[in-house]
Amino acid sequence: MKKIRQTSELEELEKDFSSLFDDEDKAREQALKLSREITRFSSQAIKNIHHLEFKQAKDFLVSAEKSLKNAKNILVDFPEIRYAGFIHNAEKELIEGLIFYTLIMEDKIYIPDFNEFDYISYLHGLSEAMGELRRYILDRIRKNEVNNLEYYLSLMDDVYYFLTSFDYPDALTRGLRRSVDVLRSLIEKTRSEITLVLQHKSLEERLKCQ
Predict the structure, then answer these.
(1) For 37-84, what is each residue's pLDDT tens digit?
(2) For 51-173, where are the alpha helices, taking DSSP H only?
(3) pTM for the structure as a whole
(4) 118-210 adopts what CATH topology?
(5) Which residues contact 193 (CB under 8 A, 6 or more apart)?
């Protein structure tokens, strides 16, 4: 039986496939670098917010947004890389920073343009931003600044109930349920701490009036 030789065809396929893999690998490396930038900028912005360095925080958030846009543009032809997970994680960190910044500076919850941001990343970022709000509350308590503590606690409750309305499989929500369970625990701890502080404050005021 005569063997069919296809060496030339396979060589052409090798060139074509290698070129495709090279393009994907290059795009992946560029996007990975940008995702690390996004995470670093977002983390620094959150740190600045806690230190009340709002101008610096805003600058880092703007830089992170630019890096995210660049990363998504690079991966526009590579959806299998775009949705591999690392862009979601970086975007979640950025959204966490944007939500926390807007809460402290504008006293409202940040809602982005969902043509630019992934809605599942937003839900995760919203949940984790409540952890930063708890830390902010504890800092206020340590400084004996108790105004608006109940407002912040009420806001955390609202976010929790909003997130619990999305009772879907983890495969769809990327594990949102676990994040919401952690949030519930944080809220109960925060509620207990605020209650103790306000009771102590009330007792102090009554003693002063005697």
Answers:
(1) 999 999 999 999 999 999 999 999 999 999 999 999 999 999 999 998
(2) 54-74, 79-82, 86-106, 119-142, 149-164, 170-173
(3) 0.89
(4) Methane Monooxygenase Hydroxylase; Chain G, domain 1 (1.20.58)
(5) 137, 138, 141
